[in-house]
Model the fold of this input.
Amino acid sequence: MATYLDFEYKIKFIQEDIISAQVRHDEGAVKTLQENLDKEVSKIFNNLSPFQKLQLARHIDRPYALDYINLLMRDKYEIHGDRHFRDDAAILCYIGYIGNEKVMVIGEQKGRGTKNKIKRNFGMPHPEGYRKALRAAKLAEKFNLPLLMLIDTPGAYPGIGAEERNQSEAIARNLLELSQLKTPTISIVIGEGGSGGALAIGVADKFAMMRYSVFSVISPEGCSAILWSDPTKAEAATNAMKITSEDLKELNLIDDIIAEPLIGAHRDKDRAAAAIGEYFLEELTKLRSISEEERMQARYTKLISVGAYSE
Done:
């Protein structure tokens, strides 16, 4: 059963009325209700607050990396393990085809349902997850395969075991290695991009965000707990932190915003996946139209410009 946020309830009632009209075969009512639905969707989703966008980024029905992998890829094969410690289920690595392109896809997976969330560690990778991602990225480089990375994590796992196995080094190593990777790379925030857990697979030639995704150095709850000693002020923190795709595009911290369906990826997964696939293939064509030297220089210039300022 679909889950609706507070501001989506008018949409829920109209959709239920449409289903009732379809059962009655009342085509006139269906048409009228569909027009009402389109108006309501436009009214609500064109006027979302940053906090509402955060809620959409975390929506329980929002597609996760594995959903997009299953919708986009064919003849796919999963790559397991970091060849050092274990296989971290919070990071997925698949080789296969998107369209006619053979690609490597790396994604962070949150999991649905208690059992699967525990298996995926709620989308918070351990160091071995990032080392697995790097192994897959190096494999893509070896065989000259383009790399697509799907970001969706509240952050890297901060537990004792992760620290013992050097979580910070694993993230830092990925930042270094991905910045130097020879193959074309594209990274997309599909939901929640939290701190170093997102950055570890976020260094790429092209960095984009879905319309209702967020990207931040810390969660709004964490920010409000630190600044105001009150994690319930998450909405105020969200407004202040500038974490939405529009904010980050305006600040030149991302390259593009992917126009997922206006009603949200959680209501139209197929079109959301198609938007990601189209963006990836279009940008890949552009990246291949320039020389490797030009592409690497453009990546370097983009990375060193982050945080630049003028007096």
In short: The longest strand covers residues 185-194. The chain has 14 helices and eight strands.
